[in-house]
Design goal:
The protein is of the alpha+beta class. It has one domain. 13% of the residues lie in helices and 24% in strands. It has a two-stranded antiparallel sheet. A two-stranded antiparallel ribbon has the order 3-4. A hairpin with a 6-residue loop joins strand 1 and strand 2. It is extended, with a radius of gyration of 17 Å. The termini are far apart. The structure holds zinc ion. The site of zinc ion has 8 residues, from loops.
């Protein structure tokens, strides 16, 4: 069997037509000095040594605006984890 590479994505339901939409996640590319700060903030580790390989972490950012592939409706986004 052949293999495919899977990617992280956002999923959202259209408020207009109810269609389920997928949107590939955008990998944020912070500056090196911002990266450590972001890692510490996201992992609640303000001080101390960081675990091996921490610099390989990736931060996915969401799109600000999405369009439904079924009806073309456009919406601003919020992250369900931030509510
Ligand atoms: Zn729609």
């Amino acid at each position: 069997m052949r293999t495919v590479e899977v990617h992280q994505a956002w999923v959202w339901d259209c408020e207009k037509c109810g269609g389920e939409n997928f949107c590939r996640a955008i990998v944020a590319d912070p500056m090196p000095d911002e990266k450590e700060e972001l890692y510490r903030e996201l992992n609640d580790q303000p001080f101390g040594d960081l675990p091996p390989g921490w610099e390989n972490f990736q931060m996915m950012t969401r799109p600000d605006v999405v369009a439904c592939v079924y009806c073309g409706g456009c919406f601003e986004t919020t992250d369900c984890r931030e509510e």
